[in-house]
Each structure stands twice: as C-alpha cells, then as structure tokens.
Specification:
alpha+beta, 143 residues, five-stranded mixed beta sheet, globular
C-alpha cells in the first residue's frame, strides 16, 4: 500500500476534519474546519501536507515559519495527526520527513508533557528535547 504525500485541496476539508476528530479534536464544526483550511492554504507562512493511502486521507501535517526578532527563525510543526488505524506504519515519519526535505532549516515541535508516545516518536526520528517550557494563555481584553 503506497502512501502519497501531497498538498491538500479545499475539497479535502471533510476528510481532514474526520481524521482530526478521530484523535479528539472536536471543537470545530465542519464549516469552521473548512474556513481554517482555506485560510492556511492561502497563507504564505503556512504549509499543509496530507498522507493519502488507497485514495483516503490517513494523516496530515501543518508546518509554519516562525520569525523571531532576536533569534533565527525556524519551522514549527503546528499539528501532526495520523488516523488510529494507520498509526505505527511509518506515515507520521513520512509526513515529518517530507517537511524536513521541503523546508530547509531547523524544524521544531511542541508536545504536551503528558504525551510520552509523541516524545518517543519524535526522538525516534531524530528530534532532540531542546528545552522544557510552560505555555501561558489569556483571553483578549475587551474594551
């Protein structure tokens, strides 16, 4: 079974949304997911790729270029999802390696501290744990 890595099209929105829902990303409606996909497809700093096997989308990766004022820019993986029935078959590795060959420079990813399987996955494909950090979040102030 050959896996093809390609850029998605707007018509892939529902399939991408379904793969995301399999792993618990349920907050977006299909129309909101379509809007996000459309915006990312038209963004110069964002890139998306899907993994397709037997005509079905079984995974996706989102990468974006992060510019910094005081340090070198880098590419960051904003999301990587492989459907549960396709995990453990090298599809995640194939998606990440595609990003690493298409986007020259450093690639980073942030993982939840509790996701030990994700840590092992990234370490197994050559990523190093560079630092620990906290992620703080606040809602916008409405005046």
């Amino acid at each position: 079974m050959t896996v093809i890595i390609r850029e998605p099209q707007a018509s892939d929105s529902e399939a991408i949304h379904q793969v995301s829902r399999h792993l618990g990303y349920t907050e977006l409606s299909p129309s909101e997911a379509y809007e996000n996909l459309h915006a990312l497809l038209n963004s110069p700093q964002d890139k998306l790729y899907v993994a397709q096997r037997n005509g079905l989308i079984v995974g996706w990766i989102h990468v974006f270029y992060a510019r910094r004022l005081a340090s070198a820019g880098f590419y960051e993986i904003g999301g990587l999802i492989v459907s549960p029935d396709a995990q453990g078959q090298g599809i995640g590795r194939k998606l990440v390696n595609h990003v690493r060959t298409q986007h020259r420079g450093t690639v980073r990813v942030r993982c939840n501290m509790l996701r030990k399987d994700a840590h092992r996955f990234y370490e197994s494909i050559g990523f190093n744990n560079n630092k620990g950090q906290f992620v703080f979040q606040a809602d916008a102030i409405r005046e």
